[in-house]
Design brief:
heterodimer; A: alpha/beta; 6-stranded mixed beta sheet; 10 helices; B: 10 helices
């Protein structure tokens, strides 16, 4: 059994099944990404994980112990919506929640300062939350979740609505937490985020895991060394040519991704598609986006 | 510790925004001045303010702060999503409720000082036992906060909903309870109905102690009604809050 073990979770709302036998595990000090499209069951998984929703079947275990109401304080949760007191300063928000989690006196003020520093807001400690930027609020929101030094930090869509700069800052924070030995579960529908942050990734679709592993392990779902991304005025023609060449391919609205089974040079691909008018051609490594599309399509079919 | 922390948080938030605090100080002050001067006419201002101050404290001060305040606090908790964070924390419903009660007791103490400060400036004097007066105020605050908890957790979802229960239920209770004019002016059938109104008992009890200097025996019936009413509202309030948490158990 892993540090966090989610076993055979089933949860339905009326006749709609949201989780159908979800099973996954997270090792201690691991950053695990649960990715999936909207409605895949990510937030329901977190609700069950935090024992605010009871599953119809299955269980959640932290270090072998079932997560119940009493064990919930071992988790730190940053929900998708920011939940802070806008009319308090950053320090006052942290201080209030530190007291709620049983800290007082010097231990409380030390921990509050540590958290402010960890989320990069030490200069903003006495600023009202209502005066912070969206990125700063999001970082403070994570800071409150990690305040009581939980054994597992759960971040639900932590960068939703953030600009690029704020997103990078939050990624740095999550990386720093991971380096310091924290165990983190991140749910996201941004594949780039999961790829950048997580040691292992689980792909969730219609309430069950359709693939799981490190990026290297997930890449095995696509038998390709790399991809040729081809744009052309006539994409049908590109698809026909790829089929003639015996390549597997995936067509999107604006391009065709051709799976190259071995390392190809750009010139060789251009030569293979020589008779077809191309707008652009680029080679790229297999990423989570392609893996996600492949495994979810396979699961759907 | 948790109770103190919740109270401290609420008072700090109110201090930072100040709007509510200014309203809760200004409104009863103006009402007291107006009604005190109207009732005084050409006669004794001291006597008019003696009889006006208790009703204004109960109806124009404590009513709006200690009933409207907790409703607004719960709605804000829900709108800011902090309710969900509290749901995940070790803070229990009773500690949270007591924290809110403590915060509004502090506000009530401030309002009492302001209302009686103005009344004293016009020559009024407090006649009865301080302890008895404090007991009436304490019971009034507790029952208002309990009612506020009940309405806030059961009937209001958004900030716009806050004024609804305060206006629809609260203001008729104030009028029937004799906040703005003496209950002796009510017709008999309305006076009988007023005996079911907690505001009537708050007003009558504080009036008897503050303006007439009467003791425990004179206000026993009012206090008994208020103790029972307070107990009912507290149970209702905490129960509704717990039910609301159950309803909100989705992150």
């Amino acid at each position: 059994m892993r540090f966090l073990q989610v076993s055979d979770l089933v949860k339905s709302f009326g006749d709609r099944t949201v989780l159908s036998g979800l099973t996954f595990g997270i090792e201690r000090s691991e950053v695990y990404g649960l990715v999936g499209p909207n409605g895949a069951g990510k937030t329901t998984t977190i609700n069950v994980l935090c024992s605010v929703l009871a599953p119809d079947r299955g269980g959640v275990y932290l270090d072998g112990v079932p997560v119940t109401d009493a064990a919930r304080r071992r988790l730190g949760v940053a929900t998708q919506e920011i939940s802070l007191y806008a009319d308090l300063t950053c320090r006052q928000n942290l201080s209030f929640f530190a007291t709620v989690y049983g800290r007082s006196g010097l231990a409380r003020s030390t921990r509050v300062n540590d958290c402010l520093s960890a989320v990069g807001l030490e200069e903003r400690g006495d600023t009202l939350v209502s005066e912070l930027s969206g990125g700063m609020r999001r970082r403070l929101h994570v800071g409150v979740a990690m305040l009581h030094e939980p054994e597992l930090l759960v971040l639900d869509e932590p960068t939703v609505g953030l600009d690029l700069e704020s997103r990078r800052q939050l990624w740095d924070l999550i990386r720093a937490l991971a380096s310091a030995g924290s165990t983190v579960l991140v749910t996201t529908h941004q594949l780039e985020e999961a790829e950048a942050l997580c040691h292992r990734i689980g792909i969730l679709q219609t309430g069950r895991l359709v693939a799981e592993g490190t990026m290297d392990e997930l890449r095995r779902h696509i038998p390709a060394a790399e991809l040729a991304v081809i744009s052309a005025p006539d994409l049908d023609r590109v698809c026909r040519r790829a089929a003639e060449l015996g390549f597997q391919f995936r067509r999107s609205l604006t391009s065709v991704s051709v799976w190259l089974p071995e390392r190809y040079s750009l010139e060789r691909v251009a030569g293979d598609f020589g008779g077809v008018a191309l707008t652009s051609l680029a080679l790229k490594p297999v990423g989570l986006e392609e893996i996600f599309a492949e495994v979810t399509d396979t699961a759907r079919s | 510790m948790l109770t103190l922390s919740v109270a401290h948080r609420i008072l700090t938030e109110l201090w930072h925004t100040r709007r509510s605090l200014v309203f809760w100080a200004l409104f009863p002050s103006l009402m007291l001045l107006l009604f005190g001067l109207i009732y005084a006419g050409d006669g004794s201002k001291a006597e008019a303010f003696n009889y006006t101050a208790p009703g204004i404290l109960i109806g124009a001060a404590l009513f709006f702060s200690c009933l409207g305040g907790p409703i607004a606090a719960i709605v804000a908790e829900r709108e800011r999503n902090t309710l969900k964070r509290l749901l995940l924390s070790p803070l229990g419903g009773t500690s949270y409720f007591l924290g809110i009660l403590l915060a509004f007791l502090a506000i009530a103490a401030g309002q009492t000082v302001i209302v009686y400060g103005i009344a004293f400036a016009f020559g009024a004097s407090y006649q009865g036992s301080m302890w008895l007066g404090a007991t009436v105020v304490l019971l009034s605050v507790a029952s208002y906060v309990g009612l506020g908890f009940f309405f806030g957790s059961r009937f209001t979802k958004r900030t716009e909903d806050v004024n609804g229960p305060v206006a629809a239920i609260g203001v008729p209770l104030l009028v029937l309870g004799g906040t703005f004019f003496p209950s002796e002016t009510l017709p008999d059938y309305l006076l009988r109905l007023a005996h079911l109104d907690p505001v009537f008992h708050m007003n009558e009890a504080l009036d008897a102690v503050s303006a007439e200097g009467l003791g425990w025996s004179a206000v026993t019936d009012h206090l008994l009604f208020l103790v029972v009413f307070t107990a009912v509202t507290l149970v209702l309030g905490v129960h509704s809050y717990r039910q609301m948490l159950t309803r909100e158990r989705v992150l």
